[in-house]
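Annotated sample (chain length 200).
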Amino acid sequence: MHTQHRTTTPSSGIYHRMPAVSEQGGAALQRVYDLVLVSLPDTSRPDRQRMCLAPRRYLPLYEYVRQIRTAVESQMLAHDDADLTRVAVATELPVERVRSMLMDGAVTHPFGKPFVVRASRGELLFLRVTNMVAGHPLHLSLVDDDYGMQTRCTEMVHGTEGCQEYEWHCHQPGIYPIFNAAAASDAERRCLLGVLIVEP
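Output written by the structure step:
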């Protein structure tokens, strides 16, 4: 277990940094992600939902996309400037950034592809993941974790929302796919939710 100091250092807005003290008493650097699990219709199979991992700050963008897809059944829809401005204010992103993330009524990032979690070798990663998909169990896991990086997972309840908190110690550089080990089917367990990239 690591003792954490609650002073934080802002970063890209996707994550922030927080100093921590290891069990041995040495200083360690912790990178903190606040994520959500959401779902969108699978473009190749409209009758199925595709699970997506994304930063919590992008929830207003996700809700906007779901409204578009519900209204026009996944067809292209021109984006109203007032809607884009509202989403930009809610996500604290520039309007042009929001506009560039939308293409033909869909999101190219962060919901259109697996989410990338980044760390440097030796860093501690702290992930707080809120499951927004009712009735869908979740347990994030790394493929080919031969180095024991997945050190802790805790079930938490914050207000009315349940979430999980993960602590990963990034010992070894590499690329590690992230999947849902609690998925009910083999096909869903093979679905890539994200990728952990540990840089040297």
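Annotation: The chain has two domains: 3-37+114-199, 57-107.
Annotation: Residues 1-12, 72-76 have pLDDT under 50 and may be disordered.
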